[in-house]
Amino acid sequence: MADASYTTQEYDTQLGDYFALMKPRVMSLVVFTALVGLLAAPVSVNPVVAFCSILFIAIGAGASGALNMWWDADIDAVMRRTAKRPIPSGRVPAGEALSLGIALSGLSVMMLGLAANLLAAALLAFTIFFYAVIYSMWLKRSTPQNIVIGGAAGAFPPVIGWVVATGSFSIEAWLMFALIFMWTPPHFWALALFMKSDYDDADVPMLTVTHGRKATRLHILGYTVLLAALAVGTGFSAIGGPLYLAVAVVLNALFLKGAVEIWRRDEAQAEADSYAVEKRVFRLSLWYLFAHFGAILIEAMARPFGLGGW
């Protein structure tokens, strides 16, 4: 949790520092998956409504990032991967990050309700609450299941996009949710395998810390098997199609191959090649989600021309 020590410094804050508080890389994934959810829905949306809705969803994602950075400033300061973030590096006061997060949360939820519908706004509000409170304030520091359960926060954007278009839930929206939800643990655990000292130093109960790397490798394999079955199965749903199925088969074969390689390795092998396999699988996981959702988007855009879907 952010402490008072961050409020006694002198700050030279730039506009870019406030933008960095909103985790732009995470925001880009939120925007993309929400847009896919909106465009994959079987209902056309006015372009102005669609643009405004995606904008407010992006602002909501930025609000979540600012609140997360405010709360996690103390552990960010001791982790190499996060030490240069705006608060621990002394560029933004913790109080300003909190104020920004709260203000953007209220703005994004209110405006999404006005631009789209109340159900989408309520779901965005719940997503912000889940990430900032359930994940950041509770799960992250209390259980090795932090990434598993907390992954739901990152899985809601395509559902919000779908609800913007339709005003309701559907199995297709939840399939997109499940795709992100099941992808999150192996994605983050692959990172944790070669960044373990960070979580040790910050006393964060990541699976690598609480159960060891051997157990983490087995968990990566297990979740990847489930993810592959879900991803390929989605190809036969209303949001799937031949292109999506081809992408899913190829990428999940590669992801499964990488997960098996990780599972078979011991720490001596991993350290000998500087965790090359783990880093390769992590990089693949970054492309994995964009490729799957990109294929869903192409299938959706092609359907009006009789080309997408089955």
UniProtKB/TrEMBL annotation:
<dbReference type="InterPro" id="IPR030470">
    <property type="entry name" value="UbiA_prenylTrfase_CS"/>
</dbReference>
<feature type="transmembrane region" description="Helical">
    <location>
        <begin position="146"/>
        <end position="165"/>
    </location>
</feature>
<keyword id="KW-0808">Transferase</keyword>
<feature type="transmembrane region" description="Helical">
    <location>
        <begin position="281"/>
        <end position="302"/>
    </location>
</feature>
<dbReference type="InterPro" id="IPR000537">
    <property type="entry name" value="UbiA_prenyltransferase"/>
</dbReference>
<feature type="transmembrane region" description="Helical">
    <location>
        <begin position="92"/>
        <end position="112"/>
    </location>
</feature>
<keyword id="KW-1003">Cell membrane</keyword>
<dbReference type="GO" id="GO:0008495">
    <property type="term" value="F:protoheme IX farnesyltransferase activity"/>
</dbReference>
<keyword id="KW-0350">Heme biosynthesis</keyword>
<dbReference type="InterPro" id="IPR006369">
    <property type="entry name" value="Protohaem_IX_farnesylTrfase"/>
</dbReference>
<comment type="subunit">
    <text>Interacts with CtaA.</text>
</comment>
<comment type="function">
    <text>Converts heme B (protoheme IX) to heme O by substitution of the vinyl group on carbon 2 of heme B porphyrin ring with a hydroxyethyl farnesyl side group.</text>
</comment>
<keyword id="KW-1133">Transmembrane helix</keyword>
<feature type="transmembrane region" description="Helical">
    <location>
        <begin position="242"/>
        <end position="260"/>
    </location>
</feature>
<feature type="transmembrane region" description="Helical">
    <location>
        <begin position="215"/>
        <end position="236"/>
    </location>
</feature>
<dbReference type="Pfam" id="PF01040">
    <property type="entry name" value="UbiA"/>
</dbReference>
<feature type="transmembrane region" description="Helical">
    <location>
        <begin position="171"/>
        <end position="194"/>
    </location>
</feature>
<feature type="transmembrane region" description="Helical">
    <location>
        <begin position="48"/>
        <end position="71"/>
    </location>
</feature>
<feature type="transmembrane region" description="Helical">
    <location>
        <begin position="26"/>
        <end position="42"/>
    </location>
</feature>
<keyword id="KW-0812">Transmembrane</keyword>
<feature type="transmembrane region" description="Helical">
    <location>
        <begin position="118"/>
        <end position="139"/>
    </location>
</feature>
<protein>
    <recommendedName>
        <fullName>Protoheme IX farnesyltransferase</fullName>
        <ecNumber>2.5.1.141</ecNumber>
    </recommendedName>
</protein>
<keyword id="KW-0472">Membrane</keyword>
<dbReference type="InterPro" id="IPR044878">
    <property type="entry name" value="UbiA_sf"/>
</dbReference>
<comment type="similarity">
    <text>Belongs to the UbiA prenyltransferase family. Protoheme IX farnesyltransferase subfamily.</text>
</comment>
<comment type="pathway">
    <text>Porphyrin-containing compound metabolism; heme O biosynthesis; heme O from protoheme: step 1/1.</text>
</comment>
